[in-house]
Amino acid sequence: MFGPDACGDTNKVHFILRHQNPISGEWEEKHATDTPTPKKDAKSHLYTLVVKTDNSYEIYVDLDVKSKGSLLEDMSPPVNPSKVIDDPTDSKPTDWVDEKKIKDPDATKPDDWDEDAPKKIPDADATIPSDWLQDEPDNVPDPSAKMPSDWDEEEDGDWEAPLVPNPKCKKVSGCGEWTRPLIDNPDYKGKWSAPMIDNPDYKGEWKARQIENPNYFVDEKPHNMARIGALAVEIWTTNGGIRMDNFLVDTDVNAVLAFGKATWEAKSILEAQSDKNAKKEKARKAREAKRAEGGVVNMAQVYWGEAMEVAGDNPIPAAITLVVLLFTAVFVFSPSSKGKKPAVPDVAEEEKDEDEDKSEGNDGAAAQEEEEEEEEEKE
């Protein structure tokens, strides 16, 4: 048997191998010990079991391997039985003592042990809060209630307004009769019982005598299962809307997986798109309701929802736009782009440099004139 089972405490994908003991001729159920959990949503799912010639198996859920195991190591009870078993004719002796601990027969309850002491006692140190309203009831008649027009006091009795919480009690610690809070009783010990001691007559855990298993055998090829002559579906459910289709038994694993892609995977893609469209339609109706209601907050939520829907439908352009906006924001608001002023030439420094150039020029001209006068005198 193979398939999902989610009922009560059971929540797994069953793989149960029916295996025949060649000695006794009895058929036994061998359960896989490590199996995945089934899907519990309302979508279509595909469960696949692959049993290989090396006695290994794989369990797929929606074309993904979720569990692996061995027919020789991971089945319970094991495919191959033990060589020895408990002797079915052996029984525990009547005088066998397998209680490891017993109550101390010599122990007595202490004289100061009070079994009647309560577990909780009123806190003697507690005091009533200063704002506690002892004269105010917790509930008062509803002042806004009115007697129904069809109420007949002769037949229905005196009409009384329904009780509502006393509004005066909302802003204080409490109303009505105050009682001390309960605290743990330091003298509480509970019911006395004698302490446990080692049993002097203890003999240990009794085990049946071991004998050779008359039905012992070794099957090295449990993958070579009995021939499948029919396929049956067992359904036990309290939920409606369950549908099953496309049952396939084959010896070609690749063909089975390819069939799953062509059938379940195609359906799964359509279901996902349908769910997405349904969610978008629900969100659109909610936005239209907010748009009709109006208001700054509602309109902001409407525009934000529409923007998110566009971004979800166009993730790549939305990501590029976001990156551009981030870079722009970093450039505009970064410290390096603030406080920088264009270089303005220092007029005073330039005039000073010009004066020095002129002074150097004048000095050079005067020196040249002196040299010319000296040469004329020599001549």
Write structural notes for this entry:
With 379 residues, the protein is of the alpha+beta class. The chain is built from five helices and 15 strands. The strands form six sheets. A four-stranded antiparallel sheet has the order 1-2-3-7, with no helix packed on it. A three-stranded antiparallel sheet has the order 4-5-6, with no helix packed on it. A two-stranded antiparallel ribbon has the order 8-15. A hairpin with a 4-residue loop joins strand 4 and strand 5. Helix 2 packs antiparallel against helix 3 and helix 3 crosses helix 4. The longest helix has 41 residues. The termini are far apart. The model has no long low-confidence stretch (mean pLDDT 87).
Helix content: 25-40%
- Secondary structure category: alpha+beta
Beta strand count: 15
H-E string:
EEEEEEEEEEEHEEEEHHHH
Our measurement of the CA-to-CA distance between the termini, rounded to an integer number of angstroms, reads: 136 Å
Give the biggest sheet. Answer: 4 strands, antiparallel
Tally of helical runs: 5
Overall pLDDT metric = 87
The low-confidence runs, each spanning 5 or more residues with pLDDT under 50, are: none
Strand content: 15-25%
What is the rounded Rg?
46 Å
